[in-house]
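input
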Amino acid sequence: MQTDQINHSLSGSTHEGIAAPYDFEIMDVIKEAWQRTSGFKGAVLGAYAISFICLSVIGFAGLLFLDVNPDVNPFVVQELLSIIYDSLNFGITILRYPFFAGIMMMGIHRAVDAPVSYKMTFSYFSFTLRIILAVICMSVLIVLGFVLLVIPGIYLSIAYMFMVHLIIDKKMGVWDAMETSRKAVTQHWFKLFFTGVLIISIHVISAIPLGIGLIWTIPMHVAIQGILYRRIFGVESV
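output
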């Protein structure tokens, strides 16, 4: 089959944390991802729905625990609530990554024709601590990059795009995953950047008719990430 040929002939590799030289054509990746959306949409959309519900419940539960003494100065109450809300939002932002890790791995599974299921949303929670530490480190470095000269922040925001994939698939530590992703992405940073721009453009256009097009483009986006990962690093854990 054509997909079997794609899996083996267009797969990258990683040796001692360094991705081998690679290349890809953006439109080839888009076309392959579009082909792989068939039979993939239900699992991806189901996984996103489950993630949204779980995170919403966590956020709502957090709000229920907000209890401020009414006798406290109103200004203090406002400041306290602001801190609590910001902390809660930050916590939910961090917690979404373990959920999304499952969705990312769905893309990798699809890229090599392995079985996928919405249940994969919960399959990688054993990596939660490592993923959260990586996300915090990544966020700090990206923010520093934007504060310093902006351009380093833009560079790092793309360079770390495969960090979570590597933590799970290659069982890498936090810094190793960050550096492996950065070094590999740097080989074709602009091509990956413009791939991201194209994906965003496709999402925007597909959302115009009442968001109906997102039913196809969201799964395609997940597949694109998996295909790119396969082409750059190769897949080990599937």
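quick obs: The radius of gyration is 20 Å.
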